[in-house]
Structure formats: structure tokens, C-alpha cells
Amino acid sequence: MTRETIQFILQIVSIAMAALAGVFDSVYAQPITPQCQPPQNGEYILLVLSRIRKNHEQVQRILPDSAKTDFCQYLEDRVTRVGGFRGINDAKDWARYLDQVVGYSAFVVQSPPSSQPNNIQPTTIPSYTPQGLGDGYAVLVDYFNQPEVASRLEQLLGVNVGLVSYAQRPYLLTVHTTSETQANSILRRLSAEGFWAMVVDSRRVTLLKRKVVRF
């Protein structure tokens, strides 16, 4: 075997060892994803199938700032855990929005019935409390699972479009006003542009997010 052949073989072995070391480094450098914590007593949590941190960060931007989120392992999947929901309807509204509009699979998990003795106080957890709009009129738009509707509304009206819950369904909020005349004027304008809009009693509307995040 010539010297050149030996040197060539050594170079190949060296390259292979370096590549193998890089593979091991990348494997061991992966952070361990913690297991998701179950919901506490009286709490509903939302699990959003995220898989990677980039998706988790995108979900964080969509949710309200007050929502408590964690990137964790649930069974065989990495998910975004959203905690603090005290009402199942609010959690379901967000699950439906994330699934139908944003495109992330999401589902609601409820805490099991409490078996604690009455003299034991449960741990206090921060809760996400959606806000009611209060008195007045709300002009809502059914977006039919089309996220681009929010962008079209913003361009047409020049306002921030929010996300609300009404009659246990998510809608886009264009205007909240105490003026019935203004609300009806906006309604006519939206209807003329082909939007499926309606004016409702804003006391029956729950605000989920003041401004919808667009992609």
C-alpha cells in the first residue's frame, strides 16, 4: 500500500469521525422538553400541537398577553400548553380559532374531579379572564375560517380588528360603539362590500383579543 493511499484513507476516516462527532453533538445539544403539567382544580387548559419552538412562539403572539404558555411534551408530541382558562367556552373558542383559522390542531383538557378533603385549600393559579365589551353596539363579521378577512377589514375601515366570542362562536370585531347610528352605518358599508356582518348587543360579546395577528 503506497504512502498516498494510506494518507487518503486517513483523510477519509478523519472526515467521517468529524461528521459523526457533529451528529452526536447536535443530538446531545437538543434541550429536553419537559412534560406538560395537568390542569389544576377548576382549570381548563388548551393544548396546541406545535412540534417546534418557532411554532410555539407564533402561537404565543396570537394569544393574549395575559395567557400563560409553556412548550412541553404531551404523549408523543410537543405542544404549547395554555393555562388559566376558568370557562370551557372561552377555551373552546380559542381552540376553534387556532384550528380553523390559524391552522394549528388544538384541544381543551379539563381538570379531573377533585378528590381533596374540604379542609385543604387548592393552589391559587393565575387565570385568563376574558373581558366583556360592556354597553353599546358591536359590529361583528363572520370570517368563515378565512384569516385574510381581518386584513381586508383593516384596509377597508382603517381600524384594528379584534377577535371576540358571541353565542359561543368566534367573530371578528370591527367596531364597538355606543352610537346605534354609527353601528348601522358600518353595517351597511360592510354588507355593501360583501361581508357577512351584524350588529349585536355588546354586553353579550366577550373580547378575546383586541388585535388579530395576521400572517
CATH class value of the domain at 131-209: Alpha Beta
Fraction of residues in H or I helices? 25-40%
Separate helix tally: 5
**Radius of gyration from the alpha-carbon trace, in angstroms:** 25 Å
On the 0-100 scale, what is the average pLDDT?
A: 78
β-strand amount? 25-35%
**CA distance, first residue to last residue:** 62 Å
Biggest β-sheet: count, sense, barrel? 6 strands, antiparallel
CATH architecture heading of the domain at 131-209:
2-Layer Sandwich
User: Largest sheet, order of strands side by side?
Assistant: 5-10-7-8-6-9
CATH-derived topology of the domain at 131-209: Alpha-Beta Plaits
Would you kindly provide a written description of the structure presented here, covering whatever features stand out?
This protein has 215 residues and is an alpha+beta fold. Among the domains are: 44-110, Sporulation related repeat (Alpha-Beta Plaits, 2-Layer Sandwich), CATH 3.30.70.1070; 131-209, 2-Layer Sandwich (Alpha-Beta Plaits). The protein has helices spanning 3-29, 53-62, 88-102, 148-157, 180-192; strands spanning 44-49, 68-74, 77-85, 106-110, 131-132, 137-141, 162-166, 169-177, 197-201, 205-209. The strands form two sheets. It has a six-stranded antiparallel sheet. The model is unreliable at 23-29 and 115-126 (pLDDT under 50).
